[in-house]
Design brief:
Elements lengths: L1 E9 L4 H16 L3 H21 L11 E9 L2 E8 L27 H8 L2 E6 L6 E8 L12
Antiparallel strand pairs: 1-2, 2-3, 3-5, 4-5
Helix pairs in contact: 1-2, 2-3
Length: 153
């Protein structure tokens, strides 16, 4: 079984729950274990929130009103990618598999990438080549409900 979808979303806070609900609905319909679905939906919410907050290139006179979310459920793994057209990650921060340092537990900002790292099995954080922008991709091995209608064979 293989399912994939891609969304082109406005950089507005209302887009975050839309992406999360679509992912949860897809995984529920496919029969993915609810705990795995929840972990991935929280990670997706964090990645989308980062794209909404940081994904514009307003510092260079441009405006980026959108970002892209792509999800693949393929066999035993789910891979999610969130890409924006903003300035990207600072030099040295791109193309890493772990955030540099976690934010303090009581911080209101700065915990998203660390949370994604904890919830997913593999995380890639980098910049898009060429036109710029950040890309956060992560994947997780899927577990299935016993009554899963679309379980991988």
């Amino acid at each position: 079984m293989s399912i994939w979808w891609s969304l082109h979303l406005r950089r507005e806070a209302a887009s975050v729950p839309l992406a999360r609900r679509l992912l949860l609905g897809t995984m529920e319909t496919a029969g993915v274990d609810p705990d795995v679905s929840y972990d991935l939906s929280v990670a997706l919410s964090e990645a989308c929130a980062n794209a909404v907050e940081h994904g514009g290139d307003t510092a260079h006179g441009g405006t980026s009103e959108a970002y892209r979310v792509t999800a693949y459920l393929d066999g035993e793994k789910c891979r999610i990618e969130v890409a924006d057209a903003g300035p990207g990650f600072p030099a040295g921060a791109a193309v890493r598999s772990r955030p540099a340092r976690p934010a303090p537990y009581d911080a209101e900002h700065g915990r998203g990438l660390c949370l994604i790292q904890e919830l997913a099995d593999h995380v890639h954080i980098g910049n898009k080549p060429g036109r710029g922008g950040a890309v956060v991709s992560f994947d997780k091995i899927l577990k299935w409900r016993e009554d899963a209608p679309l379980i991988a064979v």
